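Lecture 7, part 2: worked example. A protein chain together with magnesium ion.
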Amino acid sequence: MSTTAQSVWNNCLSFIKDNIQPQAYKTWFEPIVAVKLQENALSIQVPSKFFYEWLEEHYVKILKVALTKELGETAKLVYIIKMENTYGNRQPFTEKIPSSNRTPVKSQEVDIPLNNKSPELKNPFVIPGIRNVKIESQLNPNYSFENFLEGDSNRLARSAGLAVAAKPGGTSFNPLLIFGGVGLGKTHLAHAIGVDIKDKYPEKTVLYISAEKFTQQYIDSVKKNNRNDFIHFYQIIDVLIIDDVQFLSGKSGTQDVFFHIFNHLHQNGKQVILTSDKAPVDMQDIEQRLLSRFKWGLSAELQHPDFETRVSILKNKLYRDGVEMPDEIIDYVAKNIKTNVRELEGAIISLIAQSSFNRKEITLELAKQIVEKFVKNTKREVSIDYIQKVVSDYFQMDVDTLQSKTRKRHIVQARQLAMFFAKKMTKASLASIGSQIGKRDHATVLHACKTVDNLSSTDKQFRKYVEDIAKKLSV
Ligand code: ADP
Ligand code: MG
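Predicted complex, written out as structure tokens:
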């Protein structure tokens, strides 16, 4: 590589870095390699055709400005698209399965294992040697790309999804990690990719599974002593979609097995698609080696949809349901429900239901009532951390003290109050409250809730505590 190409490109990069979002810079510019400079043409190598198209579509202006600054008006940019789907440099597969046992993975008519009618994915195992069996994809055909409306909030994730669907395992987006908050479309998009792949490549084995079910299956396999069958089953999949991988946090056994499966699939050019409610950097209790695998591909965020996108999602939903609704009402709903597509849809569904049950016309008045209910019911849930912070501030102690093992009365009371409010104000289970507040068990939390109830009806001072804290938590 010529040093001039490198230094010209470095200057361009530092200019670009100052002018775009850090995440975008990381995703779209860090992977680029400057290759050569000839006359006034800089050649850069990009990981895929999609990558090149994305750069052209979104960053061509800034590239031009940067390059012109360096090389003058006659500057030219040449893209070199690296051959896709090369796995040669990746780390070797480390799973200790004798190679003779590795199920032949080429032709993809595989095994019976999934019984579609049972609510659980039962016994998802391939009986070695048996061919010509089908794996149910567990995909929901309603979750298609067509129904997944595009907006600024999801453009990157959606396009990356389309690119992956066009060439599963053949882009640099492997794994593709889709992350974002509740109700923003992670599950929908993950299905859409699977559905599209099934459509384009019917012979490929696609499997959608939640991380929770995956974990359950793994635990079962350990109990039944067929962990290897479990691994084999997953290793013959062409496109593995695992939803809500944040669920794996703290579960080191499952993480370990997933790590091996992931490596095997990746090595063999199979596609992995993951979703999570957090960006990889924010994932807790996920092993480092797994996190760094997640970062091999692309992490694409689903953000809160903007107003226009919310309107088009609503219109699309109404259109599919064959319902007409005045624009004024659609606008009203879209304006007032902002952070969650699931709630947006929920409001419109209940609006339609209300009006048809009561044979009422859909009026703005009715919309207001329903939206108000929605906004109230889904009032921002306070976090357990926040509750602990408020309670310990109130008693002028720090959170560590509140969580400590001590039996000192005032500390015990503070802890019990925190548990009581956590039960009241969050949807967390007793067990999860206990584990977050000083690693106690669910019985301790239950006891705390009862104690607070009792004390607040018998002890005036204590009742004052409850009222004060409730006030602090409600603002
Ligand atoms: P998540 O998995 O992120 O919690 P979901 O995928 O379950 O969210 O999406 C919640 C609901 O919102 C689903 O009914 C989904 O179809 C809908 N939805 C989300 N984003 C979009 C979108 N861009 N276009 C159409 N519907 C969407
Ligand atoms: Mg989901």
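The chain has four domains: 3-112, 155-302, 307-376, 384-474. Residues 155-302 form a domain with the Rossmann fold fold (CATH 3.40.50.300). Keep this in mind for problem set question 3.
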